[in-house]
Structure formats: structure tokens, C-alpha cells
Amino acid sequence: MDNSLLAVRDINHKHIVVGLEKEMDLEKKAIERIKLASEMSLQHYGVPLVCTYSGGKDSDVVLELFRRSGVPYEVHNSHTTVDAPQTIYHIRQKFGVLENLGIKATVEKPVYKGQRCSMWTLIPEKKTPPTRMKRYCCSVLKETGCPNRYIATGVRWDESTARKDRTAYEGITAKKKNKIAINDEIILMNDNSEKRRLIEHCRLKSKSAVNPIVDWTHKDIWDYIRSERVLYNPLYDMGYKRVGCIGCPMAGEFADFPTYRRAYIRAFGKMLEAIHRAGKPSKWKTGYDVFLWWMEDDNIPGQLSLDDM
To answer: For 123-135, what is each residue's pLDDT tens digit?
Structure first.
């Protein structure tokens, strides 16, 4: 065989080996984070660690890491009321498997002011569309679950500039600015004083979080999914790069989900009615006007952006 071909084959082999070693290192580190958080959850909260699950690729990776970690755990999904049908079916499929294994898997329905709610009731209630500066949709529909619990999320640094300052271990209060971040590079060395800090930190917070894949890249996620054959949301095969709430933030989604487009327009119409009943002025005349401002016009001040997620 030609020496140049042998050299190329050798280089390719080395790339594969290096890639697998990196993947194994990432997996090991993530599982160590999960195990330590599990220990803290059982010691302080007296209940298993909760794996929060959205139905996206990052959640699927974290869920697989939990399965491999061997720790006791529960799984929680916040039903946003604006997830795509494919996402809902994917969540049901995953939760069905978990329940068959005896793992508690909970879908929490959103509540606002003591009443069941949805995006469609929340918009008129708030009298304003959700925007970058007024992200009430996230705080009500996604972030109220698992109070007084230790949770695991799929937050990653390379998802957005807003997540660059996130760490592997965090404390969460009603005011997100009051976070305490702990460096896992020290904790994972089994330093007892650092472990005590983490325990004390848990006691001060109503909710604590571990982000086991915080340092994974987009490529790392897909490499792991493919190499470990992790079942993922079918929306990705339809060309979607994200599988969050429909309408947040790209209007192009409505071509595939016209029912959601109509629902938003109706909700915006009811929002205008609520504004008028309150005797307040509005620059919009119809729900469709609001929709155009919200999703289709260019350079809308305050509009949601992927960098804010």
C-alpha cells in the first residue's frame, strides 16, 4: 500500500481515538457532577436529584448520563402549552420508558395566581406580549417547578452569550441575580471543605442546580447522541436547530405550525381587549397588528433573541 495512504489512515485513526477519548472524558466529568449533586440532594433535601427535561437534545443527553450514573433520580417536565406536537410525543415516549423502569416522571402543568394557565391566557393577563425585557412566559411556564429541590439542567456555555457566566453548581432564589456559583474543578477533587460549602450553600437556597454538561459544545452533544445512539426529538431531522416553545423567537416556525400562529393572534386580540377595559392606550388595533410587530417586523426593540435563551 502507498505510504501516503497509510499515513492518511493513521492520521484518521488518531483523530477518531482522540475524539472518543474526549467524549469519554466529558461523560466521566458530567457523571461525576451528577453523582456529587445526587449526594448533596439526598443529604440536604432528603430526596433524589431531579433531572429537568424539555424534550430537546441537551435534555436527552443529560437523561442518558443520569441513566449511566447509577444514582437515584426523578425526571420533571414543565408543560409550557406551546411546545410542538412532535416534542410532546417525544416526551411521552421517553416518560413511558422511565415509568416502566419505575422512575418517577412528572409533567407539571403551569399555574398563575393559583389558577391553571397557558400562554394563551397569560398574554391577556399580562396585557403585553412576552419580550426580551418582559420574559414572564419563562418565569411562569418553565421555571416554577421543583421548589426546594436539587435539580439538573442541560444549560451549556456555547448556547448563548447570556449563559457564559453559568457554572456547574448554582443556587437559585426568587431573584436570579442572587446566585451562588461554585467551582466544580475544586469540588471534583473531593475536597471536604468545598463539599461543606456546597452543603451550606444548599441550605441557604430554596432550589439548587447542577449543570453537568455546561462545558459541552454543540458538536459534543451531537457526537454523543450519534455514538451512543440516544433517541432524540424528530424535529431536528426536520431541519430545526432548536425545539423550544413555538414562536420563540423565530417566525419561520409558523409555516409548520399554523395553528399556533392563529392562537397567538387570538391571544393578542384578547390582550388588546384587556388593555382597553383597563382604560389604557395601545399602539395596535388588532391582534394581527401585535403579531406582525412581535414576530415579523425587522429590528424590533425588546424582541426575543436566541442569545437571550
So the answer is: 999 999 988 777 8
One-letter amino acid at 48 equals P
Q: pLDDT tens across 136-156, in order?
A: 888 899 888 888 899 999 988
pTM value? 0.78
| Number of separate helices (H) and strands (E) present in the chain | 10, 9
Q: All 3 cell numbers of residue 177?
A: 441575580
Low-confidence ranges of the chain (pLDDT < 50): 5-11, 13-18, 20, 173-180, 182, 184-204, 250-251, 299-309
At position 283, the amino acid (one-letter code) is K
**Single-letter amino acid, residue 272:** L
Q: How far apart are CA 227 and CA 106, in angstroms?
A: 28
CB contact at 8 A, 67 and 235: no
Q: Domain residues of the chain, as ranges? A: 3-308
Q: Which residues does 34 contact at the CB level (< 8 Å), separation at least 6?
A: 49, 65, 66, 69, 71, 152, 210, 212
Strand-pair partners of 107? 77
How distant, in Å, are the alpha carbons of 142, 225, 291 from that of 268?
21, 39, 7
Quick count: other Cβ atoms within 10 Å of Cβ 3? Answer: 7
* In this structure, CATH architecture of domain 3-308: 3-Layer(aba) Sandwich (3.40)
| AA letter at 134 | K
Query: What is the pLDDT, as a whole number, of residue 295?
Result: 76
| d(C-alpha 89, C-alpha 235), whole Å | 11
Return the closest-CA partner of residue 293 out of 120, 138, 157, 131: 131
Using CA atoms, how far apart are residues 37 and 210, in angstroms rounded to an integer?
6
DSSP classification of residue 117: -
Residues 56-75: pLDDT tens digits?
999 999 999 999 999 999 99
Question: Side chain identity at 252, as an amino acid letter?
Answer: G
Tell me, what's the pLDDT at 160? 59
Q: Residue 191 class from Cβ within 10 Å (0-12 exposed, 13-18 middle, 19+ buried)? A: exposed
Residues of the chain by 3-state class (helix, strand, coil), percent to 5:
50, 10, 40
